[in-house]
Amino acid sequence: MGHLLSLYEDTSSLMSIENIVDPSTIFSPSQSEVPNFGFTDSVIWFRFKLRNDSTLFTWWLDIGHARLEHLTLYQFTPQGWQAQHRGMANPLNNPLLSIRSDPFPITIAPGESQTFYVRVQSRTALSLPVNLWQPLSFNAFIEFSSLLNGANLAVIIILTLYSLLTWLLTRKLLYLQFALFSFSVFLFWSTVGGHFHQYIGLLPQAESIRIISFFASLVNLCYLIFARNFLQSRHYAPLWDRLLILLIGIIALEMVLSIWVNFSILARFITLVMLLSSLVVFSTAIVILARGYKPAQLFIIVQAILFPSIVIRALGMFSILPIMFGQISIFITISILMPLPVMLYNRRMNFLAREKETALAQAMKIEQMMVQELEKQVLERTHKLKVAQTRSEEANLAKGEFLAVMSHELRTPITAIAGAAQLIDTNSLNEQNHHLLKTVRHANKQLLTLIDDVLDLAKMDAGQLKLKNKIFSLKQVLLDVITLLTPEAEERGLILKLETETLPEQVQGDASRLRQIITNLISNAIKYTDHGLITVRAELLESDDGMLPIYISVEDTGRGIPNRLKTQIFRPFIQVNSNTSEPGSVGLGLAICKRLVTEMNGTIGVESELMQGSLFWFTVDLLLPSKQSNLVKTHFKSVAPIHILLVEDIAINREIITLLLTQDGHRVTGVASGQEALDLLNVAPFDLVLMDIQMAGTDGLQASVLIRQQAHQNCIPIIALTASSSLQMSVKCRAAGMNALVSKPLCLQTLYATLAAHTTIPMLDCLEPLDKQQIMDPLYGFSDIDSKRITAISQQTLIEEGDKLTTAWANQNLILLALAAHKIAGCAAMTGLTELSNISLKLEAAATAADIEQLYILMDLYNKYRKN
Fold first, then answer.
1. Superfamily holding 636-775
2. Which residue range or ranges hold the Histidine kinase domain (predicted)?
C-alpha cells in the first residue's frame, strides 16, 4: 500500500502528533510502492486513510522490515490520540513473534473511515514496505515465512555440523573454515530475522543493530578466509592475495568499531567493504583460473550469483532501490549457494588428486630424460665453464685497460695544476699568497689520491683492496685536511675548528684512506651548513688489546638529517636532499666511508636532529709503531748532475719538465718525437732517457724497442713518463725494454728515487735530514721570469694550434685536425685549462676515428669556448 501513503520528513525530529495533524503541515504523496530514505537523521511521518468495507473489526498493519528502531502508530479515539510502539528499541508486543513479524493491530468499525499516522525513526537504512493484512492471511504468511526460515537455518546448521565433523576426521583446514563461515551465516540470519534477540537476548534490544553489524562483518571475514585458502591465492596470485589480507584486516577493524562507532556511518562502510570484497574475490578467481587452477571455475559461478545480490543490497542501503529487494535477494542467494562450497571442495580434491598423478608421471619422465642427458649436460657445462673463464679473463683485462685509460685522462689536467703551482713557487710571495699556493698543492695531492680511489673502488668491489700499513702523524693528517678545506669553509662564512685530545706522535696504518674519510665528512658538513661552526674532534680511546682505537667526529650546526634517512644515509646514492644543487652530490661518499671504516675494523654512525645540526663519528684501530721505526732517516735530495734526454711531443710539457730538472744542475736535451730521440742517440752520449708514451708518429713504446735493438744503446736507462700507472701499462713498458715508469704529474721525490735506482753516478747526500715540508712538497725555486716565459709559450701555442685546427676543419683534413687537437690538449692540460683539454682530446679521438657527426658537435663546443 505504498502508493496510498502520504509522507512528511521532520528534519528537526521534535514534532509531536499534535504538530503533525495541524493543517499547516503539508504531506507529500508517496511516489513508490516501497518508500526508501536510506540512512537519515530525520523522523519520517506517514499517514493513510482507511475505509472498512468489510465485516471485520480488526486488521494487522505490518511494516515488514526487522531493523527499524522506533515505530509508533497513532490512532484517534474518543480519549484522544492513542499510540502503539514497535521496533527494535521497544519490547516485543507478542513474545511468540519475532521483531520481523510484530504488527500493529488496527480496530475500525465496518463502514467507517479513519486516518492513521505512523512515526518512524531509525539509525538503520529507513525503508517502508507497508502492508495491511486480514488476521487469517497474516497468520498464514507468518507460518509460511517461519517454515521457510526454519528450513534455511536447518540447512545451514546441517552444513556447519557436516563440515565440522569432516574437519575432525580429516584435519583439513578448509573444512573448519567453511564450518565457521556457515555458522557466521546462521548467526547473521538469525539476527536479521529477529530470532537471535527473541531467544537469546544477550544485549538490550536497542543495541541489536550493533549485533547485526558485527555478524555481517563476521560473515564477510569468514568468507574471505575460506576463499583465500580455497583459491590458493598465495601461490597463484600473490598480489591479489595481499589485497585479500588487507581486506581481512579492514573487516577485523570493522568488528571492533561496531561496538561504539555511529551506526549509520558504520553500516555504509560495511556495505561498501562487502561490495569491494566480493569484487576482489571474483577478480582473484578469474586471475587464478587464467593461470591454470581449474577448481576456480565453480567458485566464479558462485561469485557471479552472489555479486549481483550484494550490488542490489548496496543500492537499497543508499536509497536507490527498495531495501527489501536487496534483503530478499541476499537471503535467496545464500539459500541457493550454501551447499555449493561442499561441491567446490570435493571438486578441488579431485583436481588435486589428478594433478598429483600427472605431476608424478611427469617427474618420472623427466628423471629418465635427465639420466639420459646427464653426460651430455656435463660436457656442455664443462665447455661453458671454460668459455666463461676465458671471457672473464678477457673482461678483467679490458677492465684494467679501461681503468688505465681513465687514470690517464684524469691525471692529464692534474699535471697542469701541479706544473703551474711549481712554476709559481719561487715568486716573492706574501704570507697570504703563500698560504693559498700551499692550499693549491694540497688540493692537487688530494686529487691524485682521489684518482687512486677510483681505481681502488674496482678492487674494493672485487675484494682486492689492500690497506697500507705505514707510519704517519695522525695530527698532521688532520691539519692537512683542515688546511685544505678552510678556504672553502671561509667562503661560506663558516668557522672550521680542530680539537685534539692526547694523540700519539706517530701511528701506523693507512693515512690516505683515513684522510679520505675525514675529508669526505668535513666536505659534507661544509656543503650542508649555511652558517655557524664545524668542529672536528679526535681522541685516543682506551684499549686492552694493544691496538690504538681512535675516535674522530665532525659536528656541524647545519640542516640536520630527517629520522627516516638516518638508517639509509650510508647506502649508495642516498642523499639528505636529492634536489641539492651542490656539486658532487652523488650520494657515494658516505657509502665509501662506511666500507673503508669497516676495512679498518671500525664503526661509523650519525647523530642528528632536523635543523639542529649533525654529528658524524667513526672509530678505527691503528697500530703503535715500533721504536726502530720512529728514528728520523736522512733522505737524499737528488743524484749528482747527469745528462738526460727528454722525449716529449708537447712543447709546454718539455719546458716545465726541463725547468724542474735543471734547477738541480742536470743537463736536459729535449726532443719532440721518438724518431728525433733515435737520431740524437746516434750522435751524442746521454746518461738516461725520459720517454713520454703517447706521442704522434713513433710513440714511446716503439722508440724504446728501436733503441734496444741498437747494440751501443742496449744498456742506457729508459724511464717512462705516462699518466697511466696501471699494471697493464707497466707490463707494456717492460716488454718494450723500459727500465721503470714514473706517473704524471711528476713528484720530484719519486722521480729522483727512480733516477738513483737506474744510474751508476753517485748520489749527492743532504747535509742534514729533510724536514716534513720538504718530504711532503719538495718542489721549490722557479723564478718569475721562467713563470712568465712558460705562460707566454702556452698562450702562443694555443693560438697557433687553434688556427691550424680551424683551417684543417675547413679543409676537412682530419689528419692535420687530429695533430692540432693533440697539441692543444697537451698545452691546455699543463696550464690548467681542463675544459679546453677535454674538448681537444675528444676532437683528436673523433678525427682519428673519422666520426664526422661527432666532430661537428665538438667543433661547435670548441668555437664557443674560444670566443669566451
1. Response regulator (3.40.50.2300)
2. 405-624
